[in-house]
From TrEMBL:
Keywords (A to Z) from UniProt: Cell membrane, Membrane, Transmembrane, Transmembrane helix, Transport
Membrane topology: Multi-pass membrane protein
Superkingdom as given in the UniProt entry: Bacteria
Domain Major facilitator superfamily (MFS) profile: 25-421
Name of the molecule in the record: MFS transporter
Cellular compartment(s): Cell membrane
Matches recorded under SUPFAM superfamilies: MFS general substrate transporter (SSF103473)
UniProt cross-references to InterPro entries, sorted A to Z: MFS_dom (IPR020846), MFS_trans_sf (IPR036259), TM_effector (IPR010290)
Main subcellular location: membrane
Length: 446
């Protein structure tokens, strides 16, 4: 298939010339189907936050090993690393709504089994690992289908806003879930957290079933054909903005998105605040992330420069967190890290989705998610090893320094490819550094 194939041509990226009005911050919620979808996601992510906190803490208590928590994270994300691209092919071939109903039903069954094992007192670490692995296979199809389905709900005009709101609803659930989960462990036991998540997944299936299918912006379904997997990879290779964004995402996911392992170690070994403290740490990260998600709806545009710069800021914040002298400073820094993390993630997600044609978007987003979750699958055990051998502070420092170095490296490569250089511009109220071509130095063009 040639690069001139119509299905692989990129749709123009919508560019806003004025900042959105504050009353339009949640404009996607004016779409009835999206309100159903977002409501279901808030419930589901709250319960999922409870489950993950409970699951990680349960493994730590059963095994006494932070490395075992890292293995749990790996079990969740390893299937995406191995089979994630296949999930993108499936998402491009079949109805996204139907796929999501199937995956959420399966997730409900997994959570129900976990609940029975815990409440019956028969749960073992290997049970949790096996079910986490099965849940990882659900994610292989669920995540790319979910990413593309948002466009079908709101259409291209509201896509950027919907992506930011998706992050906001996720973080709202993540804000409430870990705090409730930490309390639930000590109050009623971990089994009920899994039971609640099973019910929440069933509620998501119901919200999908209640949608008005006639108002959806249906994505053309790709017929089965040879070479569709490599077709998606070639598409990414021809698009520098997508390629460099995914490379940057890999560095961030592998090192900076291992916070469950790091926060468990800080709660258990550094500050000794127990399960409730671990839930609070996760909630603080979510508070920052929710703030970042709302702020991301105010952006006029997304660009590779914004993505790389956001990763650099995240790296600086997390590296600084390793030097926190006490609990209060640590809490403030992980909150700031949550905001920086979400701003980076929404920028990267928006840039990739809006730079990709609908006909191949499922496969491109599968690669995006493969890198994001696969990086966590590999990074979780590595961070657990670093924490156990060198300490939580060293692990936190590595989680920031490596993404910062990757951001600087990508910036240098982009400058060299585009023959750009940093120039001090004085055409505004305050001097600023910008990347410009030599021919535009005099005007400091953006």
């Amino acid at each position: 298939m040639t690069s001139t194939d119509e299905s692989l041509q990129t749709t123009p990226i919508p560019v806003m010339t004025t900042r959105p009005r504050w009353r339009d911050t949640f404009v996607s919620l004016r779409v009835a189907n999206y309100r159903l979808y977002a409501g279901g996601q808030i419930v589901a992510t709250t319960a999922l936050g409870m489950q993950r906190v409970t699951q990680d803490w349960l493994v730590l208590q059963l095994s006494g090993s932070v490395a075992a928590v890292g293995i749990t994270v790996a079990m969740q994300f390893a299937p995406m690393l191995l089979f994630g691209l296949l999930g993108g092919v499936i998402a491009d071939r079949y109805s996204k709504r139907l796929l999501l109903m199937i995956t959420q039903t399966t997730a409900a069954l997994i959570s129900a089994v976990l609940a029975v094992l815990v409440l019956s007192g028969t749960v073992q670490v290997w049970h949790i690992w096996a079910l986490a692995l099965l849940g990882g296979f659900v994610t292989v199809v669920d995540n790319p289908a979910r990413q593309v389905f948002v466009n079908e709900i709101v259409g291209p005009k509201l896509l950027r806003n919907a992506i930011s709101l998706n992050s906001s609803t996720f973080q709202l659930g993540a804000l409430i879930g870990p705090a409730i989960g930490g309390l639930a462990i000590t109050a009623v036991g971990s089994g009920w957290a899994f039971a609640i998540n099973a019910a929440a997944c069933a509620l998501v299936v119901l919200s999908l079933a209640l949608m008005d299918a006639s108002t959806l912006h249906h994505t053309p379904v790709r017929p089965r054909a040879k070479g569709q997997l490599t077709e998606g990879l070639r598409y990414v290779g021809r698009k520098p903005a997508i390629l460099f964004t995914i490379v940057m995402l890999g560095a961030v996911a592998f090192f900076a998105y291992t916070m469950p392992v790091l926060l468990a170690a800080y709660a258990n070994d550094v500050f000794k605040v127990g399960a409730a403290g671990y839930g609070l740490f996760n909630a603080l990260v979510a508070v920052g992330a929710l703030t970042g998600a709302v702020l991301s709806t105010r952006r006029l545009s997304v660009s590779l420069r914004l993505v790389v710069g956001g990763a650099a800021v995240l790296g600086v914040v997390q590296a600084t967190t390793a030097l926190a002298p006490g609990l209060v400073v640590f809490a403030l820094l992980i909150t700031a890290g949550g905001a920086a993390s979400l701003l980076f993630l929404t920028s990267a997600n928006s840039l990739v989705q809006q730079s990709t044609n609908l006909g191949v978007r499922g496969r491109v987003m599968a690669l995006y998610i493969l890198v994001q979750l696969g990086g966590q699958a590999l990074g979780g055990p590595l961070m657990g090893f670093i924490v156990e051998r060198v300490g939580p502070e060293a692990g936190m420092a590595v989680s920031g320094i490596v993404p910062l170095a990757a951001a600087l490296a990508i910036a240098i490569v982009v400058m060299m490819r585009g023959h750009l250089r940093l120039t001090l511009c004085r055409d505004g109220r305050l001097p600023s550094l910008r990347l410009v071509a030599p021919a535009t130095d005099s005007t400091c063009a953006r």
